[in-house]
Amino acid sequence: MANREPMIELIGLGKTFESKNSYVKALEDINLTIYEGEIFGIIGLSGAGKSTLVRCINYLERPTTGKVIFDKTDLSEVGDRELLKIRQSMGMIFQQFNLLMQRNTLQNICFPLEIAGVSVKDAKKRAYELLDVVGLTDKAKAYPAQLSGGQKQRVAIARALATKPKVLLCDEATSALDPTTTRSILELLREINKNLGITIVVITHEMSVIEEICNRVAIIDESRIAEIGDVEEVFMRPKSKIARQLVFSGANHIDSFVGEDKCRIIFDGRTSFEPVIANMVLECRTPVNILFADTKDIDGKAFGQMVIQLPEDESSKKRIFAYLEMHKIPHEEVL
């Protein structure tokens, strides 16, 4: 990132919320630089301060302490009118899409352009361009109630791009979507970053989202930044306790495996690159225990055998045998 200019700089940023009888520190001493053209991730557990941080970046929340420097401008030093203009350079998409239900797709995308004083003709032209970018040219007249979750988020992305922003802020933008739709939205964001050069900030609690799309990541824990680094480095060698907790969540950890039945799987020349056991576990949604393996790779083909311990649950065993039969993988039960 040495050859790129900083797009967002947070210097000693803090945010305290004051109620009648108490103070709550939502953010404390946040120091962060996000460079032009990168996809930067911000991750933390619920209540860590992620959403407050993104609202401080676009000054929807004014920081209690510290500075936000956006594209070389200190936001604390500009007036309200100039701040509104600067915010047009920061598109934002949300978990719940926030579309106007009484407006169709085209009208939703035009909305920020209306606020910016763009003519109806130019706003519609821009909206149609963006419908093409997000792959929804056939949904211009559809209303939000007629769209799927993924389509709604694509409309929200198009709307966020309407004013030609320099930065796209994504606050839990895929949390309400299924895994397949999530991947398609992340791929769209990657294309937008590549083709339009827009800096993207991804706020999420899902490590899979960070791993899929981000160049660098900051991990927030208890209102502070616990760790910053390249995604690959943080994933391979997490230094902070919270990073280790997020990367190695233990959600699928098995302390002991129960099951007496065994199955011998024969590899008789399938490609060595096909992850047979991994695909079986993923598709059958059940773990197995590898007891013995003797396989060889000969000219890119796998030969040999593997003995696995099957789970005790009968339905899980049936799914495994059905998978092996469907994919014509030679196998037999063994004692």
Mean pLDDT across residues = 89
Q: How many separate structural domains? A: 2
Oligomer: single chain
Q: What's the CATH topology label of the largest domain? A: Rossmann fold
Classify the beta-strand content into a percent band: 25-35%
* Name of the CATH first level of the largest domain: Alpha Beta
The spatial strand order of the largest sheet comes to 6-7-8-3-9-10
How would a crystallographer describe the biggest sheet?
Answer: 6 strands, mixed
Please estimate the helix content.
25-40%
Notes on the structure:
- The protein is α/β, with parallel strands linked by helices and 335 residues long.
- The chain folds into two domains: 167 residues, 3-Layer(aba) Sandwich (Rossmann fold), CATH 3.40.50; 73 residues, Alpha-Beta Plaits.
- The chain contains eleven helices and 14 strands.
- The strands form three sheets. A six-stranded mixed β-sheet has the order 6-7-8-3-9-10, sandwiched between helices.
- Strand 4 and strand 5 form a beta hairpin.
- Helix 3 crosses helix 4, helix 3 packs parallel to helix 5 and helix 10 packs across helix 11.
- The termini are far apart.
- 31% of the residues are buried.
